[in-house]
Amino acid sequence: MIRVCTVIDLPPGEAVRILARVPIAVFNADGELYAIDDTCSHQDASLADGWLEGCWVECPLHASSFDLRTGLPNGLPAKRPVRTYPVVVVDDVVYVNTEAQQDVA
Amino acid sequence: MRTIAVIGASLAGLRSAEALRAQGFDGRLVVVGDEPHAPYDRPPLSKDFLLGTVDRESLALSDPDALAALDADWRLGVRADRLDTTTREVHLSDGSTLTADGVVIATGGAPRTVPGALALRTLDDAVALRAALTGGTERLVVIGAGFIGAEVASTARKLGLDVTVVEVLPIPLGRVLGPEIGAVCGELHLDHGVALRCGVGVNEVSAAGVVLTDGDVLPADLVVAGVGAHPATDWLAGSGVAVGNGVLCDQGGVTNVPGVVAVGDVARWSGQRHEHWTSAAEQASVAVRNLLAGTTAEVHDRPGYFWSDQYGVRIQFVGETHLYDEVRYVDGTPEDRKFAAVYLRDDVVVGVVAMNNARHFTRLRRQLGAAPLSTPAP
Ligand SMILES: Cc1cc2nc3c(=O)[nH]c(=O)nc-3n(C[C@H](O)[C@H](O)[C@H](O)COP(=O)(O)OP(=O)(O)OC[C@H]3O[C@@H](n4cnc5c(N)ncnc54)[C@H](O)[C@@H]3O)c2cc1C
Ligand code: FES
């Protein structure tokens, strides 16, 4: 478990990037918190900088969108999913479990 | 349609083949490409691949399974020499002829060359250039401070070479990004110890080095030219397909000849030839839909976008810079080499540019076009 920030520091529509073993992006999508690999599965871009829309984040470099719930891309150029991580809130503090929920190749 | 030929097996050609199958075309699909390689990604050729941090395999635009699933006949290492639109035949360099009722022109661009200088467009060019850069070369001169020239200069600098960039225009990238941002791009070279000579042309590349129009000679062990590319339309001579700085198309990639569409760097859609990765990728599905429909059923009107990585700075741009009134910084400053700015015309955002600021870029590009800028002036 890694401490991310307090709940107030991650309002709806925002994202933060934390440095775990690999960088992880934590999003507040309309009140629901999600964590995924920060680095796009296509090339070198930070998904925390992307455009958040519903449960999807659009990569800021070539615009593949990733489903925050599953890590799956909606289409090219990304072909592989990113990993997703469990998020918990304890006493108004956001934590991420850095053991990936679902490992991908 | 029973047979469709895609000519050009790079980004635009591959995306067209994929779109044809995705949109239900189940006839015979032939892809002709004069390079011997399966479709690969060009942008890394001046960046990580040239630097040596990514290998050839990772450049692949598709994997063998996905390529096989397209059920296409790949004619790689074969050039289309001529198109006859009356008989609907494509004449290939191996002597064979291909008859197709639909043709997708995706032949991209061929680099303009300077005698005595290397050019960078293909994987083979990049392999040769990397060998030259890492083979004991000390002094490199890059002709042209456009994106490819700047990226090559940046990579060569990282590899430890002594680099000079020569640009004939007074400000690098001024025509694309405007003088203010172009000047910042010029400073990136200086930040990293690369010399920049602007406003001077090149007379010739001689044994002594690069001879400039003002008489100076820049000593060089290696010279690279990044002076743009012209659309690869030579094979269309006499075909009846209208050409003029690219294949002339409407806003949907449809040419003057029925059953022939054009996509990517070779295509001039409604007067505009975008020579960028994203437009090549996006145009394919639109042109293919129109090819299958036999008419312009869909148009592509998304603003042009590109990125460039140089000297550890990611530059992103979307929109256009034609006749803007003002560049307004919205976040950060050019001095920090981290900023996002908008180009305004009559207070409307017509372009967005950023250096190392994907976060603001991503948000600002949503303001393109319609609404006046909602951020107060600084
Ligand atoms: C070094 C480099 C770096 C780049 N970096 C960026 C970047 O950072 N960002 C960005 O937005 N864009 C970048 N680009 C531009 C981007 O790569 C192009 O826009 C894109 O490749 C266009 O794809 P295309 O398929 O239309 O053309 P191309 O990629 O040029 O492919 C055309 C293919 O057709 C083949 N061909 C040509 N004539 C014939 C013929 N008669 N018969 C058969 N085959 C033929 C060619 O050999 C080639 O394989 C870069 C380009 C280069 C060269
Ligand atoms: S880096 Fe994310 S889509 Fe290309």
TrEMBL record, chain A:
Signal sequence annotation: none
The UniProt record lists the keyword Aminoacyl-tRNA synthetase: no
Keyword terms of this UniProt record: 2Fe-2S, Dioxygenase, Iron, Iron-sulfur, Metal-binding, Oxidoreductase
Gene Ontology molecular functions: 2 iron, 2 sulfur cluster binding; 3-phenylpropionate dioxygenase activity; metal ion binding; monooxygenase activity
KW Metal-binding (keyword) present: yes
InterPro entries per record: Rieske_2Fe-2S, Rieske_2Fe-2S_sf
Domain Rieske: start-end pairs: 2-96
EC id: 1.14.12.19
NCBIfam families: PRK09965.1
UniProt protein name: Bifunctional 3-phenylpropionate/cinnamic acid dioxygenase ferredoxin subunit
Organism: Umezawaea endophytica
Organism placement in taxonomy: Bacteria, Bacillati, Actinomycetota, Actinomycetes, Pseudonocardiales
TrEMBL record, chain B:
Lineage: Bacteria, Bacillati, Actinomycetota, Actinomycetes, Pseudonocardiales
Cofactor: FAD
Name by which UniProt lists this protein: FAD-dependent oxidoreductase
GO CC, alphabetical: cytoplasm
Gene3D superfamilies linked: 3.30.390.30, FAD/NAD(P)-binding domain
UniProt-listed Pfam families: Pyr_redox_2, Reductase_C
Sorted UniProt keywords: FAD, Flavoprotein, Oxidoreductase
GO molecular function, one term: oxidoreductase activity, acting on NAD(P)H
InterPro entries xrefs: FAD-oxidoreductase/Apoptosis (IPR050446), FAD/NAD-bd_sf (IPR036188), FAD/NAD-binding_dom (IPR023753), FAD/NAD-linked_Rdtase_dimer_sf (IPR016156), Reductase_C (IPR028202)
Start and end residues of each Reductase C-terminal domain: 305-370
